[in-house]
């Protein structure tokens, strides 16, 4: 999927997602960093209450993970209710169900009240077993969901659209076009007085008498509160990034013939893992126009969107194989699938204790709030943030505050935390490795090479231009790895990502990679630029 100043999906009309850059100092009641769904929804909710709100975005509206989501709006959480109950207790599971259910309704209400043509639709969701999984898992989740207050969840013999075996049906789930919805909410927030500035990268947050958000361009926002809605918080160096881990997830879309009554949200019970044949799968069906409009007298086409193949960010895998495996898995179940028309990947942050972090930042100055740890539930977590954070900023209490508190101690999920720490430790050991063997680089290729005492991240962009940078992530100095799907340098430690030119794509890093000319030390790489070839990257 493309993201940028305009966003086009399925060949539909572009959405204007670009705004002017902030070029002068200003003031606001609340400054929001990040113009994805979480940031824009918070801006809308605060502006409705009469707050003066300003949103700062380094790229364009929706240019981060919102532009890459498959947009399941669900209270069937990825981490399972019996898991939440085991780690946090029955009341936490109840609040989880309540908050995600209210989150779906919150999104629906905005879509209706603001008349946003985003194809918002209620439908069933099904949790099904992959081959070889024990049916007892479904019974455990059914019982836990009922205890959490989701009494309408029921066990069924199969999923309507394919021969799945037993499944749990979660009624009253939803889906929409996330970018159409985001564009509509952004316009509504601006109508209510919010200001949105794109192309405005934040460099830091200071506090003396008030909070000041500094930008790379030199302008600043003085404000009473700050919401950091950048997927991975860019204001925190260590604390929050030791409580969660970054994963890449893959998705593809293809035309399909399916009975309208069989359209649903689908998820299996597999776990995220390094094995491309094993991890979690998620599926939904959409249309070339979710609003059902005719194009030149022709009804819209139906598409299947299939996701999965997750792995920790920055590990050395072949993304094309992830997409190929997803496609094989889907074709076995939906033989009418046509040719894949879109492939893309996204980034998911997994909290070690399975609950998102939405609330006051536990370190740094007072008045700073964060929303992170989406765990594959970014759409509803964004809505939860827009419900919860305005209340906390107003100094009020809220029944969801304790569960989502970013300051909670990591007493659960310690095994996952240990694995994450192990990956970080192993990465730092790479600084004494010999690097990869130097080779001639084709367009869209990259490698890590040793240059004296340094490791260099060297790549050719899609235009054949050579780029060389120090291989140290500018967050905490881990060695970045080349992502051949996104043509980016990804950090395996905390998920920061950089373009081929070394520019920050996503945090927690806020500084670009440091340039480091090769100076002829590796002549194999310095061969003349090779003409670009068709890329296998997402479209």
Characterise this structure.
The protein has 539 residues and is of the alpha+beta class. The protein is 22% helix and 27% strand. The chain has nine helices and 26 strands. Strands 5, 6, 7, 8, 13, 14, 15, 16 and 17 form a nine-stranded mixed β-sheet that branches. Strands 3, 4, 9, 10, 11, 12, 18 and 19 form an eight-stranded mixed β-sheet that branches. β24 (488-490) and β25 (497-499) form a beta hairpin. α2 crosses α3 (90-113). It is globular, with a radius of gyration of 23 Å. The model is unreliable at 1-11, 272-278 and 526-539 (pLDDT under 50).
Please supply descriptive tags for the structure shown above.
539 residues; alpha+beta; 9-stranded mixed sheet; 8-stranded mixed sheet; 9 helices; 22% helix; globular; disordered N terminus; disordered C terminus
**E-strand count:** 26
The helix-and-strand class reads alpha+beta
Report the C-alpha radius of gyration, rounded. 23 Å
Query: In what range is the share of β-strand residues?
Result: 25-35%
